[in-house]
Design a protein that fits this description.
Radius of gyration: 23 Å
CATH architecture of the largest domain: 3-Layer(aba) Sandwich
Largest sheet: 6 strands, mixed
Structural class: alpha/beta
Strand content: 5-15%
Bound molecules: iron/sulfur cluster
Shape: globular
Helix content: 40-55%
Mean pLDDT: 90
CATH class of the largest domain: Alpha Beta
Number of strands: 14
Low-confidence stretches: none
Length: 453
């Protein structure tokens, strides 16, 4: 019989997933399944797929599963739309006991018919959930038949549980997107400056901020994946001359596939913080090799950095020397946050991600100071242990980390999809600093013993 697991034995088993810079020589283990018996903060496969696809604003998003899975709605993922609002509904087949015994295919077909009759969409996305993986409903066949019946695109998203973690959901979503994209009609226009923007979900209108920067540089945004996107525009994604990828964790698979299938190269970018925003705009300008684009990019960077820089200076004077802990979904965000905190005088003392990739952890390890704890797929007790050990004044995370921070009397910054203010671009860097200042300097800490007042 296996000995019972205790917090100490779990910690021992997890030791390859945690390192302290300067103390441990080994490479951090990542991109692995969560350890059994150890609580993980990762979301499920379906959730990963839904994050990526839900911002398609004119699609019907139909969840084939019990009603609980459909609780994952627009309202907790506030990506904005410039037009259609259909994506804000969360439709479900509401599978019940009888459907689990006799199968849910007929119910699914009826649900698609009803939704198409009522909303007349061009695209229906049908998400598979855990139980559908168990009962084995043939989503592909049901969707194919519905597609023929209605003359529209009905695409199954193969996101049932048991095929992995949230990352497997990202991949399932990218596979669904690849079915929507049509091969280009010919070669892109010579000298065309059209790009697709991958891995931005238009939270609080962030895609629009970046679209405006690119417009000022003379570059068109062809399609954004998937913030504020629509079915018809997604179909034309293969017409772009370049893909830029912000959230690589969710979209690098799509970028690689589009390079392989349509010969579209890609660049990794990040629009979080002054340094990374400026660097990304320069990278795009230099890829086009056009002096005009480069000059306009420099003008934009100079103008925006000057204004934002002055405001960050004010915050830096007040926040200098504070310590932050970071636990976010993807690696690109973690990397940018290290630099962003430096811009306002704060040291990152603990940093981890749910789905970071090996190369992202290598960059994180290079960027952080000696003694910083780096960890993958952490559980709440590990976060607590290292935050206390390192004396963090602030935690950056998502909805699951907020209660932990408050219980420890530590300030909290929401860097997840449910926030309502933009954190991208120059304007986002100032918003971020303002939020750090207001949470760290909140008078509430006087009463609960935390913060910096
Ligand atoms: S039942 Fe499965 S698919 Fe539904 S929310 Fe839970 S883990 Fe995700």
């Amino acid at each position: 019989m296996q000995p019972e697991k205790t917090p100490d034995t779990v910690f021992e088993e997890r030791k390859d997933f945690i390192l302290t810079k300067g103390k441990h020589k080994q490479q951090l283990k990542c991109d692995a399944d969560s350890l059994a018996g150890c609580v993980s903060q990762r979301a499920c496969v379906y959730c990963g797929a839904r994050v990526v696809l839900n911002p398609i604003t004119d699609a019907v998003h139909l969840v084939h599963g019990p009603i609980g899975c459909a609780s994952y709605t627009w309202d907790i993922r506030g990506s904005l739309s410039s037009g259609p609002e259909l994506y804000r509904f969360s439709f479900s087949t509401d599978l019940k006991e009888e459907d689990i015994i006799f199968g849910g295919e007929k119910k699914l077909a009826r649900a698609i018919d009803e939704l198409v009759g009522k909303y007349h969409p061009g695209l229906v996305l049908v998400y598979s959930t855990c139980i559908v993986g168990v009962i084995g409903d043939d989503l592909e066949a049901v969707c194919r038949a519905a597609s023929r019946r209605h003359g529209i695109e009905v695409i199954p998203v193969q996101s049932s549980g048991f095929i992995g973690n949230k990352s497997a959901g990202y991949r399932a979503a990218c596979d669904a997107l690849l079915r929507i994209i049509r091969p280009p009609k010919g070669k892109g226009l010579p000298g065309s400056r059209s790009i697709n923007y991958l891995g931005d979900f238009n939270l609080a209108g962030e895609v629009w901020i970046i679209k405006d920067y690119l417009r000022q540089m003379g570059v068109d945004m062809n399609v954004s994946f998937t913030g504020d996107s629509r079915y018809e525009t997604l179909k034309g994604a293969a017409g772009a001359s370049l893909n830029i990828v912000q959230c690589a964790g969710s979209m690098i698979y799509l970028a690689n596939k589009m390079e392989e299938l349509y010969g579209i190269p890609f660049l990794n970018v990040s629009f979080l913080g002054l340094e990374d925003t400026a660097q990304s705009l320069r990278k795009i300008a230099s890829w086009f090799g056009d002096g005009g684009v480069a000059a306009r990019a420099e003008e934009l960077i100079e103008r925006e950095s000057a204004g934002a820089g002055k405001r960050l200076e004010w915050y830096r004077e007040r926040l200098q020397g504070k310590k932050a802990a970071v636990y976010v979904g993807g690696g690109f965000k973690a990397i940018s946050l290290i630099k962003q905190f430096r811009e306002i005088g704060i040291d990152v003392v603990m940093i981890g991600t749910q789905t970071g990739r090996k190369e992202e952890y290598e960059t994180i390890s290079e960027l952080v100071d000696e003694g910083t704890v780096v960890l993958d797929d952490a559980n709440p007790s590990e976060l607590e242990k290292f935050m206390l050990e390192k004396g963090a004044h602030l935690l950056v995370g998502g909805v699951k980390e907020r209660p932990l921070a408050y219980k420890l009397g530590v300030a909290f910054i929401d860097h997840n999809h449910d926030r309502k203010h933009p954190l991208s671009g120059f304007v986002g860097a100032v918003n971020f600093a303002g939020e750090v200042y207001s949470t760290l300097c909140s008078p509430v800490w006087k009463y609960v013993g935390g913060g910096i007042l």
